[in-house]
Amino acid sequence: MTENLNDLYTFVYRGQLTEEALDGADRRAKQDNQSEYENYWSLLSVDELDEQHVQSANTMAAVYVAFAAFENSVRELISRTLLDEVGEDWWTHCVSKNVRDAAESRRDSEEKVRWHTQRGQDPIHYTMLPHLLNIIRNNHQPHFAPLIHDIEWAASVFEIIDRCRNVIMHSGALNQRDVARLGTFIRDWNSQVTV
User: Fold this and answer.
1) Most confident among 6-10, 119-123, 138-142 (mean pLDDT)
2) Model pTM?
3) For 152-169, what is each residue's pLDDT tens digit?
4) Which of 43, 91, 93, 144 is 20 to 30 A (C-alpha) from 173?
């Protein structure tokens, strides 16, 4: 009987150690993310929308994540590179007047609606994907050439990503071939610009 009880204690103890190891491996973070996702789902009344549209949009949500992360990583690359090489006033010296005016106009417009969350503090947060390419193109030599060997290659990456982005941002759905192409371009970009 004592031997069986020891086996039971050993089994339970190992189970507790396993639970702690899983928690240490971010299981709780994943559960918290799922809980946060379900909370947003509820706040947005998604369960009251057409199931077919919800399923399609939910599938494309992963594609949106890729766009958002890509755009923000490009913004960070531009900001970090130009801040390091030009200084604090890089926005004025390195960004065309048209791009600055468009970004500042969007920021001014959003500042008037104080009850709504804004995109960010810096003007670069108010740029669009073509604006980001414009900044890179206009500053390719000397600032971005070490990372981006061919500006036309970069333009082709941005063109494909923007084309796919427009479908998603206007409630469309990409087919798997387009998603795979998008993934290839994002991987290529990251391989090229990551230092």
Assistant:
1) 138-142
2) 0.78
3) 999 999 999 999 999 998
4) 43
What is the residue range of 12's domain? Answer: 1-48
Side-chain half-sphere CA neighbours of 28 within 13 A: 5
Q: How many domains, in total, are found in the chain?
A: 2
Asked whether 75 and 124 are in contact (CB, 8 A), the reply is yes
Quick check: bond before 146 cis, omega within 30? no
Q: Which amino acid is at 33?
A: N
Secondary structure of the chain as H, E, C letters? CHHHHHHHHHHHHHHHHHHHHHHHCCHHHHHHHHHHHHHHHHHCCHHHCCHHHHHHHHHHHHHHHHHHHHHHHHHHHHHHHHHHHCCCCHHHHHCCHHHHHHHHHHHHHHHCCCCCCCCCCCHHHHCCHHHHHHHHHHCHHHHHCCCCCCHHHHHHHHHHHHHHHHHHHCCCCCCHHHHHHHHHHHHHHHHHHCC
| Pick from 67, 83, 192, 78: nearest CA to 138 | 78
Q: Which amino acid, 42?
A: S
Quick one: average pLDDT of 53-81? Answer: 92
87 and 15 co-located in one domain: no
Note whether 133 and 64 are same-domain residues.
Answer: yes
- Residues 60, 37 within the same domain: no
Place of tokens 């200084």: 87
In this structure, the answer to whether residues 93 and 24 fall within a common structural domain is no
Whole-number Å distance between alpha carbons of 117 and 124 = 16
Same domain for 178 and 93: yes
